[in-house]
Amino acid sequence: MNINKIRKLKGFMPDHEGDALMKWSEKFSNLGPVMEIGTYCGKSTMYLSKGAYINNQNVFTIDHHLGSEEHQINEEYFDEEIYDYTKKRVNTLPLLIKNINDLGGINIIPIISDSVKVSKSWFTDLGMVFIDGGHSFESANNDFSSWEPKILTGGSLVIHDIYENPHEGGQAPFEVYKKALQKNYKEYERVDTIVCLIKG
Ligand code: SAH
Ligand code: MG
Description:
- Helices cover 34% and strands 22% of the residues.
- The protein has seven helices and nine strands; from the N terminus they run ααβαβββαβαβαβαββ.
- Helix 2 runs parallel beside helix 3 and helix 6 packs parallel to helix 7 (172-182).
- The longest helix has 14 residues, at 15-28.
- The protein starts with a helix and ends with a strand.
- 44% of the residues are buried.
- The model has no long low-confidence stretch (mean pLDDT 97).
- The site of S-adenosyl-L-homocysteine has 21 residues, from helix 3.
């Protein structure tokens, strides 16, 4: 998979954070499959895919494809390219499928549903979980409590959009990060707003 093509995709993953994600995916997919919460158009998914491919491992990625609060019409990150004007809803699924086909993400398995709903019937241990879904406190906490138990010991929990300063960004991912550190997680590495914790 061509890294320059990944860089040009629509999404919320700057190059340096994407490189970290790819590196962690390579390291931890050695233990088991990778699970991503919050696919959007698949930009972060491609970094995960490129890393896991080296271990012949799958990347599952969950999104209802209806967008988060900030992607809705009149909100800060609204984007008309992923808005279905006839159905009056955000729909990121067509662009995700196009991106997977264009870049050849053969180890990517998209799941089109709600994160918590999927977790209730998910019984495969995971090498890595990447939380980048809804950024409300409720959504971020639900993603953590639903998916964290499925990570193998020695596997990793990666969280995006960590902002210590409330003026720079929402606090829900940071809250989840602090909660994990109070449990059996230790910080492995951090690059800007993305952090990788290891489960003890
Ligand atoms: N990882 C992407 C960005 C994800 S944006 C990238 O780096 O480009 C967050 C995504 O989470 C949105 O597409 C939204 O539809 C999805 N989302 C929010 N709440 C969700 C939930 N409860 N279940 C599934 N997906 C959810
Ligand atoms: Mg993000």
